[in-house]
Amino acid sequence: MSTTIDSILVEKRTFQPPQQLVDHARVSGMDAYRALCDEADQDPDAFWGRLANENIRWHKPFTKVLNSDNAPFYTWFEDGELNVSENCLDVHLENGNADKTALIFEADDGTVDKVTFRELHARVCRIANGIKSLGYKKGDRAVIYMPMSIEVIATMQACARLGVIHSVVFGGFSFRNLHSRIVDVGASLVITADYQVRGGRKIPLKDPVDQALAEEGGDIVKKVIVYERAGGDVAWTPERDLWLHELEQGQADQCDPVPVEAEHPLFILYTSGSTGKPKGVQHASGGFLLWTKVTTDWVFDAKPDDVFWCTADVGWVTGHSYITYGSMAAGLTQIVFEGVPTYPDAGRFWQMVDRHNVTVFYTAPTAIRSLIKASESDSNVHPKQYDLSSLRILGSVGEPINPEAWVWYYTNVGGERCPVIDTWWQTETGAHIVTPLPGATPLKPGSCTLPLPGINVAVLDEACKEVGAGRGGNLVITRPWPSMIRNVWGDPERFKKTYFPPEMGGAYLSGDNAQIDEDGYCWIMGRTDDVLSVSGHRLGGTEIESALVAHDRIAEAAVVGRPDDTTGEAIVAFIMLKGALPQGDEARDLAKNIRDWITSEVGPIAKPREIRFGNNLPKTRSGKIMRRLLRVIAEGNEVTQDVSTLENPDVLEQFSNAY
Ligand code: WTA
Q: Which of 65, 172, 297, 572 is the most buried (most CB within 10 A)?
C-alpha cells in the first residue's frame, strides 16, 4: 500500500457528450445519472433488487438482496435461482431476436463466419449435452484453453448451462501456468484446440495441454475435448481425448438449463499477479450476470442495432464480462476476432471497424499507443484511410489512458464525434466501477471520471482517512456491489487479507493509487507498487509516463524506481521510441532532450536519473508492462527470473545501455 501522491499532470480540457447521443441515451444527461445515484444511496437494497428483477430471468425469485452477516464474504440474491446461459441465449429466442446475428467471427486470415442467437443456442445445447454425456455436472471444474472463436464462447456458455464452473486460461500462457491452474482449481475436464492461429502463425494448444497433464497432479483431468481449428495433426491419448465435433454429433439441439443458486460460482479466473502465486478470483452467477449486463446497457449505451466489438481475449476478465456474458445477455451483435491488431498490417482494427460497421469499439490503451506509432511511420494504416463513420462510442480499459493517446483516439478514430469511455475496473470487480456514461458525463482526458450509480468509492490514506480533493491515496470501494469477487478459490484467508485488510475499515482495497479532484473525478495513478518516492516527494509513475509519451519521439514509456542512498528512489525510464534506436552521442543527446522535456512538463523532481531505449517494452501476453523485470534491470542486475509469460522476451537486451 502506498501513501500520498502530491501532484498530477492535469489535463484541463473538458469534452461534453455529443447532443445526438444525449438525446437517445439510456442514461441521458447528468440529472438522470444523479437520479440513479440518489435512488441507490437512499435504499441500496431496493435499487439492486429492482435491477435484478428487471434484468434477470429467475427460476426462483430471491427474497433477500444483500446478506452482510458474514462480511466480507457478502452474498447477493442468495435464495434466488437462475441459469446464466438461459439469460444470455434463451431469452433472445423468445423476444423475437432468434434470427439476429449474435456473433460475427473474423479469423486471422480474414474469413468471416456469423451465427444467429438461434444457431448459437443450438450449438451451446449440443456441446452442453455432450459434456453432460461424459458425466460432468454442476460444481465440477473445467479448464478452457482455446483460441478466440465462436467455439470458446459456446463452450463457456455450455459450462454455465450445466453449472460446471469454468476457468479460462489465456492461450498465450505456457504449459506451466496451465498446469498450476488446473491443479489449483481441481479441474476434471479440459477443453482446448489443436492449434491457435495468430498473425499468420499456427501455435500449438493441445501440446501444452499434454505437457501440463503429464506433470504431477495432472491426472485429475479425466477428459480432454479438442476443437479442431487447424488440421488436427496432434498427439492423441485415445481413452482421454475426444474431438469437439465428434462429441457434438448426434446431440440434441435442446438442453434444459440447470438452475443454480445465485451464489453458485460461474467461473474462476486467475489474475496475472505481479507477486506471489496467481489468485483464483471466484465470481458468483447472479451478481456477475446482473452487473455485467447493466453496465453493458449503460456504459456502452447498448442499442438493438449496435455492432459491439470488445477486442479483448476471453482469457481475461474483459472478455468474460463484455464478450461472453454481459454483452450477450444485453442481446448485442458482437465481433469476435481471432487475430492480432498488426496483421496483416497495423490497419487491421480500422479495416474491421469499416468492414463490419462497428458502432461501439472497446480496446486497451497499449493497443492504441502501438497503432499511433505504426500510423506515424506508415500513413496507409492511419485510421483516416478507413471509413469509421459507423462508430458512436469508443471505450478504453486495462490501464490509464494518457491524455495524448486519449486525444488521438478521440480525434482520429472517433472523428471528434464519439466519447472516449475510460472504464476503470478489475478482474475482482467483475464489471465497470468508475467510468463515464456516454450520454451524460463530461469527459476529462486521462480521468475515468465518476463512479457508477450504486458504486461508492473513496481515496483513503494508511489510517483509513479520506485524503481530500487532489490528494493521492488508496482507491477503495466502500460498499459491496453484486459483481464483486466472492473469494480467492480455496484461500479465504488470502481473500480477506488482500482485499479487506483491517486498516481499510471494511472497504474493498483495489490496490490502485488514485486521486479524486474537486469535481469528484477519479484519476488512476497506477498500482500502489508503481509509486515512487524521490527526495521525499511522492510521484505517480503514471504521471511521469504520461508526460514522457507526450514527447514526439516516444511511443510508450514505463517508469520504475531504483533504490538510491541520497534520494530514496531514483527514477529509471524505459522508453519505447518511434523510429530507429539511436546509439552513442545521438542517444545521449536524445536523453538530455527528454530530461529537459520532463523538467518542463512535470518538474525537475521527475527527471529520470537514467533513460534506457528500446523498440518495445517487455509485456505480458495481455499487454501489461512487466515492471518487476524493469526494476531488476534498473538495479543493474541480470534478469534471472522466468520470462516465459512475456510476449517479447528479446526486448530485454535492448535496455542494457543507460543514458
Ligand atoms: C488497471 C482489467 C486505469 C488498474 C479490467 C487495475 C486501469 C488493473 C483501468 C486491473 C483504467 C484497468 N484506468 N487503470 N481505465 N482499467 N486498470 O484485473 O491498475 O486485468 O487495478 O482487469 O488494471 O487489471 P485486470
A: 572
**Mean pLDDT score, 84-103:** 98
> Is residue 540 within 6 Å of ligand 1 at its C-beta?
no
Nearest C-alpha neighbor of 483 from the set 269, 282, 299: 282
* Smallest CA separation from ligand 1 atom 6, residue: 426
More confident residue, 588 or 648: 588
Q: Give, in order, the Cα–Cα distances in Å from 454 to each of 65, 112, 144, 489.
A: 13, 40, 33, 26
Ligand 1 contact via 427 beta carbon (within 6 Å) = yes
E-strand ranges in 84-194 read 101-106, 112-116, 141-145, 165-168, 189-193
Is residue 592 within 8 A of residue 608, CB to CB? The reply is no
Stated pTM of the model: 0.86
> H/E/C letters for each residue in 420-468?
EEEEECCHHHCCCCECCCCCCCCECCCCCECECCCCCEEEECCCCCECC
Secondary structure in 3-state letters for 22-90? HHHCCCCHHHHHHHHHHHHHHCHHHHHHHHHHHHCCEEECCCCCEECCCCCCCEECCCCEECHHHHHHH
Share of the chain above pLDDT 70, in %: 96
For the stretch 8-54, pLDDT in tens is: 445 578 999 999 999 999 999 999 999 999 999 999 999 999 999 99
Q: Give the per-residue pLDDT at 537.
A: 67
pLDDT at 272: 53
What 3-state class would DSSP assign to 510? strand
633 alpha carbon – ligand 1 mean position (Å):
25
> Which residue among 271, 399, 420, 452 is best mutated to probe the pocket of ligand 1, counting the most ligand atoms within 8 A of its Cβ?
399
Pocket test for ligand 1, best of 317, 396, 499, 512 (most atoms within 8 A of CB): 512
How many angstroms does the Cα of residue 542 sit away from the middle of ligand 1?
13
Ligand 1 atom nearest to CA at 622: 20
How many angstroms separate the CA atoms of 337 and 125, rounded? 23
**The one-letter amino acid at 212:** A
More confident of the two residues 320 and 11: 320
Decide which of 626 and 79 is more confident.
79
CA 448 to centroid of ligand 1, rounded, Å? 11
**Beta carbon of 317 within 6 Å of any ligand 1 atom:** yes
Which residue's CA is the nearest one to ligand 1's atom 4? Answer: 399
Q: Is the dihedral of CA 603, 606, 610, 613 positive or negative?
A: negative
Please report which confidence band the pLDDT of residue 531 belongs to, taking 50, 70 and 90 as the band edges. low
> Are the CB atoms for 198 and 340 separated by under 8 Å?
yes
Shortest-distance atom of ligand 1 to CA 435: 15
pLDDT tens track for 238-283: 999 999 999 999 999 999 999 999 999 999 999 854 445 678 999 9
pLDDT band at 423 (very low <50, low <70, confident <90, very high): very high
- Taking residue 332's Cβ as centre, other Cβ atoms within 10 Å add up to 29
User: Is the distance from the beta carbon of residue 83 to the nearest atom of ligand 1 less than 6 Å?
Assistant: no
